[in-house]
Every structure is written in C-alpha cells, then in structure tokens.
Amino acid sequence: MSVLGDRSRVWLALALLGALAGSPAPAAAHGHRDVTLYELTEQAAFTPDGHRVATSALQGKARPGTPLCPQVLMDAVFPLLPFHIKETKRCVVNAVGQSDISLTTFGGTISGDFYLVVNTAETNLTDAAELVVMSGTFAGTIQVTDPDGLIITILGGTFTPTAVIGAPSPAALGIVPASFTGKFRLPFTVRHWAVYRKDNGRPTPVRPDERALGDPTVRVEVTFD
Predict the structure, then answer these.
(1) Cβ 177 vs Cβ 160: under 8 Å
(2) Does 202 score more than 80 pLDDT?
(3) Are 145 and 151 in contact (CB under 8 A)?
C-alpha cells in the first residue's frame, strides 16, 4: 500500500524509531460514538437457505486518539512523509464490508476491510480523501434488536490494522487490534420526513450530511471498548 520507494521506506522506518523513542505511547480513547460511518452503496440478495447477504461501501469519520485515528500517525508519521497532508479535525475512514443475517434468528456476522485516507497535494486537495495511510480488516457479530428491524446491534467486533504507510508494521507504532461494539440505524419515513430511531424509540431527523446523492443512508455508530 505504500507509495514510497525503497530508500524512502528505510529512511522513514529509521526516523520513526527515533521519533517514537522519545514519545509516549498513544493513549486509548473511550467514549460514545468513536466512529460514525454512512452506507453509501449496498448490493443485497436473499439466499435459498434463508439469509440476507450484502456488500456495502461506507465512509465516515473517527475521533482523534481512537484506534481508527491514532495520534501517533499525526505526531510521528505524517511529519516525516515526503508530501503535504491536509489537516482535518477527524480522520476519514472508508470501508467495504459484507453482512450475513439469518431471516430466522435475525442474527449474523459482518466482516470487511477498512482504509484510513487523507488528502494530499499529490492526489487532490479538493475532492474526498483518497490516499491510504492505514488499512486493515474488521469482523463481528450482529443482531436485530428493534421490533421493526430499524436498529441492528453490533454485539462485538474487532478492528485489526494490517499496514501503515512508511512503517514496517502497525505494531511498530503501537497500533494494535481493538474491540468494539456499535449499532446500525436504518432510516425510515415519518410524515414524509426521513428519520432514524433513537435508543429511546423516538425519531431523529436524517441530516443533509447523512445522505448520499440525496438519499438517506444507514448510519453506523462504533464505540471502542
């Protein structure tokens, strides 16, 4: 995934070791909704054995200091890269995931790949972030927990980073797998308004920035353990 040449990778790895030697390990961040993702596209199908399977593309943002927005990237990695990275308040996360839900038990699994992406002068500072600086996989179990099927709970999952730009491995930077829980909130219509259902059962409007080309999207809320 690295866009650097061999010499640049060696130089960056050595520089990172020196920078990290004098820096404290990144602290884990906790709190409600560490990551919010939105389902931009989905391809779904029903199987003969009674399952709904789907593949989705998602995009969203992660809070700084969380496992999907490690502070070490901003402090020790980005300053050493040979190109300018546009600063943002939150990290942009893209993901491609698969889901499999039983139509009998309404439980199932999710899995897929995630990509932490940034904007650079070498790509395009105007459009959506696209240069991958960290990537990995995720997997978990899910269960429909709303009587109308509007909330799907992520009972437990794990994000596993597998690569960081310019680094020999994520573990070399103290970036390790992280467990999480969360919820999918499906949009529905109340009196011609698109809304999500809150945990207390009340509706909350779908905001303009929670749409994809004008259509309301599924919202995915992730909290790290």
Answers:
(1) yes
(2) yes
(3) yes
Total tally of structural domains belonging to the chain: 1
Q: Is residue 174 part of a domain?
A: yes
Per-residue pLDDT tens for 7-66? 444 334 433 433 333 333 333 333 368 999 999 999 999 999 999 999 999 999 999 999
Is the confidence at residue 213, as pLDDT, over 60? yes
pTM of the model: 0.84
Domain with 83, as residue range(s), is 6-21+34-178
Give backbone dihedrals phi and psi of 188, rounded to 5 degrees, phi first.
Answer: -145, 175
Question: DSSP secondary structure string, 195-221?
Answer: EEE-TTS-EEEPPGGGEETTEE--EEE
Token readout for 17 is 């070791």
Is the residue at 67 inside a domain?
yes
CA angle 30–172–34, rounded 5-degree value: 20
Strands 178-185 and 219-224, sheet pairing? antiparallel
Relative to beta strand 215-216, strand 211-212 is: antiparallel
Does 193 map to a domain?
Answer: no
Are 44 and 81 in contact by the 8 Å Cβ rule? The answer is no
- Pair 67, 28: CB distance under 8 Å: yes
